[in-house]
Amino acid sequence: MSYKLGMPTLIEKSNIFDNVLLCKELGLDFVELNLNLPYCMDIPAQEMLKLKEIYDIDFTIHFHEDVDFGYFYEEIRQANINLFRNIAIWANKFGVEKINIHLNPGVYFTLPEEKIFVYEKYKEIFMEKFIDSMDRIVDIANPLGIKVCVENMKVYEFMKETFIKLIGIDNLYFTWDVGHDAMSDYIMEKIYLENPHKVNHMHMHDYNGISDHQIISEGIIPIKERINFAKENNVSVVIETKTEKALRQSVKKLRLLR
Questions:
Q1: Which DSSP helix (H) or strand (E) runs through 152?
Q2: Per mean pLDDT, which range of 22-26, 96-100, 108-112, 155-159 is the poorest?
Q3: Alpha helix locations (H) across the chain?
Q4: Boundaries of every domain in the chain
Q5: What is the CA radius of gyration of the chain?
Q6: pLDDT for position 255
Q7: 5-257: what fold?
């Protein structure tokens, strides 16, 4: 089986066009638009469709990282869901099929001897809010032909429990961020391997024991195993190194492993 390789929009670039040219030069299949970057916002869908057709590449969406779908205040949570609706409608106009969102740990209180996450302290409320939000955004995305993929950040135990509950939501999928997973002592690996049908997207980068988003094959992650998983399950893969230089090196090394 085959799988598609893509790249993230890079902070060192100042527009979508330069990312598209780099994607084409590297022989990749798609660009993941990071909505944290101003130049990825408010682009007319017709312009995006034209780029897609001229350069024969696809786009995925990396949703705003600071948007929290488990937020306790209903006014803010509903606003986040409405924002998702607006983005999904826009993205559908130029054929986006995947939107990546984060499951965030939320804020924490720093005590003299420990950190306590508010979402962990009120775990039941958090899971209820987050799961309801996922039900809502899947209902928005599914008729548009868009798959919602929930990414693992640094995963704490209460977040792992939430991921397990998400398995039961139809038409909701996971993004396996292999670097974040390594930073969390591979806490999500077992869940993903036991539920491969739920993994639809992957963020590929290495981890050197100190930081992630390192060049592929220069860290401790079993990259070849992750590639094989992507191939076997037709998972799209973003080579998520964050500079052009690191991306070029990672593309070369990844192709040697394919």
A1: strand 147-152
A2: 155-159
A3: 16-25, 45-55, 74-92, 118-121, 123-141, 157-166, 178-183, 189-194, 223-233, 244-257
A4: 5-257
A5: 18
A6: 87
A7: TIM Barrel (3.20.20)
User: How is residue 191 written in tokens?
Assistant: 């869940």
Tokens of 15: 């527009």
Answer whether 63's CB lies under 8 Å from 101's CB: yes
Angle subtended by helix axes 123-141 and 157-166, to nearest 10:
40
Whether residue 58 contacts residue 4, with contact meaning beta carbons closer than 8 Å, is answered with: yes
Looking from the CA of 183 toward its CB, the CA atoms found within 13 Å total 18
Q: Flag whether pLDDT at 251 surpasses 50.
A: yes
Q: Name the residue with tokens 């080579």.
A: 239
Q: Are 83 and 61 in contact (CB under 8 A)?
A: no
Work out the number of other CB atoms within 10 angstroms of the CB of residue 54: 10
Q: From CA 22, how far away is CA 247, in angstroms rounded?
A: 10
Residues 34, 39, 44, 49: what is their CA dihedral angle, to the nearest 10 degrees? -60
